[in-house]
Amino acid sequence: MFVYLVRRLFQLIPTFIGATMLMFLISQLVPGDFFKAKELEPNVRPETIQRMRAEFGLDKPVYVQYVTWMKNLAVGNLGQSFVSNQPVWDRIAKPMRNSMYLAMLSIVMLWAVAIPAGVYSAVRQYSVGDQVVSTLSYVGLAIPNFFFAQVLILGLFLLRTLTKDWFGYNQLIFPVAGMTSSASLTMSPWGQFWDIMWHMLIPSFVVATSGMAGFTRVLRAQMVEYLGSDFIRTARAKGVSKTKVTYKHALRPAIIPFVAGIGGLLPNLVGGAGLVEVVMSWPGITPTFLTALSSQDIYVVLGLLVVTTILLMLGNVLSDILLAAVDPRIRYS
Amino acid sequence: MKKLFIGLSLLAIATFAFAEPFVWPAAWSNAAPGEAVYGGTLKIAFVGDPRTFNPVTSAESQALSDFLFNTGAQLLMRGPDSDDWLPYAAESYTVNDEGTQIDIVLRDGMTWSDGSPITTQDYYIRYVLETDPDVGSNGYDGWFMDDDPITLEKVGDNGLRFHFPRPDRLAFPVAAMVPVPDAIFGEAYRTGGAEAVKALWGTNVDVTKTVWSTAFIPTVFQPGERIILERNPHFGDWNVDEAGNRLPFLDGYNMTVVADLDTSLNLYIAGETDTFNPRNLDDIGVINQAVNNGDIDVIVLEAVSPVASSQFIVWNWNKASDPDKQALFRNVNFRRAMAHVMDRDAIIDLVYNGSGVPMYTNVYPINTFWINDDVEKYPYDPEAASELMASIGYDKKNSDGILVNAEGKTASFILATNAGNTAREQIAGIFADSAREIGVDVQVQPIDFNLLVDQLLSEGDDRPFDAILIGLTGGSRDWPFGVNVIPCGTNLHMYNTSGGCLTAQETLMGQLFNVGREELDTEAARKVGLEIQATEADLMPILYAVSPMAHYSWASDIKGFHHDDEINALVGAWELPMIFKAD
């Protein structure tokens, strides 16, 4: 196993270099650069723009820029942001942390709902409950996250109208944007924790629902297959209780693909919750990434891609290890 | 001309020479004198994190600029009620007879937020930093008149002298500079050079360690979440209202960082923020609905003025690879015909829901003082357009209904604009439909913004586009003609970048630009400006479309904003130190 791991880790090096070359090449194919918009300012002289390009090395050939960037990368320097003139890591560290908060809660929500729902659907196949779960799953799969978030925001405003009419309560039940309340700084640490949790519920719920639908459907299919297997019939014949059959004998093998997929969660944790973060103004990776893309703050974009790539590669290794741990048929020795 | 400046200077000296603090005129606020109360926090939202807290390297045009970078102890300032420059951090100023020198006497008693005095060195060091190209300041170009440098020197203990190579109407914006603390920026520069200055006050700075001359100073910065600004305890040392009250009145600002203006609107109608500038009538509808529901209590000012930007179509005069198109685009009657198919009313109705004004010259419609209302306007008139096209040989239509000339060349071109800008895409579509009605085939092509700018600013005899719909922002109230736009050979002389002038009107406009810029008498300069616009309207190289209107909204408990007739997109809705929150 150890030899396998070492070999896998060494294999990551050429993969990583190839990935960075591809990223850099694609980034250079985009027309223009960070200073392009400046050229439309009536009072900025062309020589000033040339000077700025030279200062950031944008006047050099692409391969020189790539080699310089890789040299910096080798010593852990992701480069410098054009926009803020600061190290890229300083720009992306906090958004990564914030996205991680959101992703973690959504994963908890996802597993907490999807596993029981998938098991329920499989055990009570074609029942009314199964149909309801299936219908909700398809609806969840069909609605884009950003749209669902907007619908929920609209729902919150409508709810405010109702609570005002019925109870005279003219406040929103949940916040519609941001990560903290304006009064958060005056709160105790415990209060600040709950404040963040309170802001996180709606966006996490939206993110969780998208994964929930697919998860439930696949788990249901896995469970149905295992519940019809010979070893389950044998267990039942031996008088094993229904709960034990379902949760120990059937669920355990059925869940293996998801356990193997835990490694893939790693990049998702920092990859951001997509446009939900934009719609709900959550200060995560996606708004940072989109802002960097639109302003062609190229080293921030590349920095985020590099971190995600590394995590993706490590996640795959982790998946393999977990797979070996949970599936007795797999051994790397 | 110089008499005006000398007169202004004497007036300034007479008014302010013996008054230690600057007295903010009661006329700048609609609140009754003595009505203002202290306290309260204003909650606002702005899009995106600040990129830096460093005022020397900042290139931001919004967010913190209005609060920290462009305000504070600026030497000169303008009130909402006049275009005149008043001495502010300057106790007085004088302009020499040649109009090439501005002498400033610094006001006594001004202090930074840490209590240390603001001195001439704090202004001088900013000049030093901004004129060092290695620092990369956004203000670098402002210190040049064409290629000739503008310089600043310290005179005595409290004097500053600006030297201009020639008289310059844009001198006052230069002389209205804001200081930076020499103890921090000067010290960094002297010990670590330009790199040390660039490294100062990034977004990882502890904002409580930063020093400002502004009414409010940052005390908390949470990236992606909020910035909190609190009252500068020393601002009132030298800023008072007419009743002698120390300014500002508010305790501070709570600025929530949001991802976009949709979220900003959500926060506003949720009652989480106190101000929002509606982008269009849809936003106003949403706000009015929340008001009618009793959810929020706010004021909405609809269509207060046009915004300070332009939208226009420019044709490429340098298309050597397609001589027929080049000849067409260089033909003034073609361009006039195209002007006659620009249906501005339809654009205002369909794109801006009726909230916009037509634009006929390169001066933004909001800049009414400088506008030449008498220029040839070429109103929407398809018949006149058809006649003009016929006059240049396009008098028949082919089987597709496209005009053709005797050589069989069709009247057609590609109109590019930046993809994703829905307003521009709609304007281009309306223009193309109108052109099609008279037989001119216009194919709208939305393309990437950077590609568009590359094409627009390409140089030489064969540039890779037909026509482009785009816009410009920026410009000055003192001389609203772009230094890079009007003269031939400049990089934003967009219709002709062959290097020299191709028509007498271009040459004339370039000459008028220089004459007007160096004319310090405002009325005389205005006349030159009117002539520039008339000449351009005659040449019609650029077809201006419409300017949308600006809207404002804020919570009803905010008081002390400008009088209604003074609020517009140039001066804004209020003076920061004078607003207050009613109990």
Structural account:
The complex is a heterodimer of chains A (about 325) and B (about 575). In chain A, about 75% of the residues lie in helices and about 0% in strands. Chain A contains 14 helices and no strands. Chain A has helices spanning about 1-30, 45-55, 60-75, 90-125, 130-140, 145-165, 190-225, 230-235, 240-255, 255-260, 260-270, 275-280, 285-295, 300-325. The longest helix of chain A is centred in the middle third of the chain and has 39 residues, at about 190-225. Chain A starts with a helix and ends in a 7-residue tail after the last helix. The mean pLDDT of chain A is about 85. Chain B starts with a helix and ends with a strand. Chain B has 15 helices and 27 strands. In chain B, helix 9 (about 330-340) packs antiparallel against helix 11 (about 380-390), helix 10 (about 345-350) runs antiparallel to helix 12 and helix 14 (about 505-515) runs antiparallel to helix 15 (about 520-540). With about 575 residues, chain B is an alpha+beta fold. The interface between A and B is large, with 54 and 57 residues.
Quick overview:
In chain A, 73% of the residues lie in helices and 0% in strands. Chain A has 333 residues and is mainly alpha-helical.
Question: What key phrases describe this protein's structure?
Answer:
heterodimer; A: 333 residues; 14 helices; B: alpha+beta; 5-stranded mixed beta sheet; 4-stranded mixed beta sheet; 15 helices; 21% strand; disordered N terminus
